[in-house]
Amino acid sequence: MDVSLSDAQAAVVEDAQSVAAQIIGPAALARHKDGEFPLETLQALAGRGLMGVNIDASLGGRDAGVVAYSMAITEVACADPAVAVTMAVNNMVGEVIYAFGSQKQRQELIPALTSGRFSSGSFCLSEPGSGSDAAGMRTRARATDEGWILDGTKAWITSGAHAGVFLVWAKTDEREISLFAVDPELPGIEVGGAEEKMGQHASNTVALSFDGVKLPAEAMVGEPGQGFRIAMMALDGGRIGIASQSLGIADAALQLADLQQLTTGLHRSLFESLRARVEAARSITWRAAWLKEQGDRPFSQEASMAKLSASEAAHAVADALFRYWPTPMSDDDQRRLSMAEKLLRDVRVTRIYEGTSEIQRLVIARNLLRR
Ligand code: COS
Question: Cα separation of 13 and 4, whole Å?
């Protein structure tokens, strides 16, 4: 694995750093307090091609590959994890359509996702009764002469109130799961109120209900019955995104620890060992990204190892930062303490979404046994 960056990769990282430093970071605490969806910030990311980092330039993407994507997410997450998760889900939706969509779906939907014309896309897999057991979904799509009728409820959908397209998984018979690209404006779709969350307040999370929604036949993405496999492949990539986001949170927490002199004082050895843990997680995350970028190499196990190790390490750093926060405090320290609290809140869900830590252990174990 070559970790020296090409000019194209370095340019992506620089662009992400510049948006993070100029636009995302300065408003992160305010965004956390008011929970406002970061529309203009997402437009700024789209303006640099960061809403489709691993997508062909002919469709408005940056065509810079998965390693550059991972690094860009880390930079953005270090400034504000809530913006990073919105960016990650948009990239993921674009990649699914790019990999499995028809020519028409690619031409119609991807430029809208990469350019910022759609503020985001949504990935609608989880349901109130099926999170970890994705195949246990109850949403159904019934075939008709004109197309499909969609009924069901999806839960914890990132960007659901703002998305320009929903990717919705549904059972098309007792066992078969298929995927549909759904126009959020269609009659019969109801968007629930924004969840009041512990952290990542500026990312939008809602429930969606579909009541007799009529879909045209061409709304299906991929083949009938291919949906579960598409979801699993997309989640492998999505886990690299969340691992990268977790690294950004860990980096932000370590920067605060440096500023508060926790890394040179009494707790130095603790923070040194945490820093080593974060660097180990970064290595496996880059490796998973590199494997995915090769196109023909399996990376499911490495993606789960990356997600597990990075999210757990980020939590450990954010927790230690908060636990050993020094007193007394100046005004600057007080502001930094608010950032530390935000990180501790933001980090919790990284061990849950895109598959819990327990699911990552299950995927890793299954792959090890298979090998
Ligand atoms: N890539 C491609 N195909 C995959 C795959 C992958 N990573 N993982 C599984 N598949 C395929 C299998 O090969 C199998 O295909 P066949 O039926 O042709 O043999 C099929 O999918 C079913 O696989 P499996 O038996 O492993 O499915 P399970 O129902 O046991 O579930 C887990 C597997 C638990 C790993 C899956 O449900 C999962 O990832 N759950 C977590 C969901 C999640 O992350 N949700 C968060 C959503 S975002 S908030």
Answer: 13
> CA 4 to CA 1: how far, in whole Å?
9
The minimum-distance atom of ligand 1 relative to the CA of 126 is 47
The structure tokens listed for 217 are: 């036949």
The angle subtended at Cα 67 by Cα 65 and Cα 72, nearest 5°, is 95
What is the position in ligand 1's atom list of the atom closest to the CA of 366?
Answer: 26
Threshold 0.85, pTM exceeds: yes
Asked whether the CA dihedral 155, 157, 160, 166 is positive or negative, the reply is negative
- Residue 128's pLDDT is 97
**Domain architecture of the chain: domains with CATH:** 7-120 (1.10.540.10), 122-221 (2.40.110.10), 227-370 (1.20.140.10)
> Distance (Å, rounded) from C-alpha 131 to C-alpha 153?
12
Q: pLDDT by residue (tens digit) across 217-256?
A: 999 999 999 999 999 999 999 999 999 999 999 999 999 9
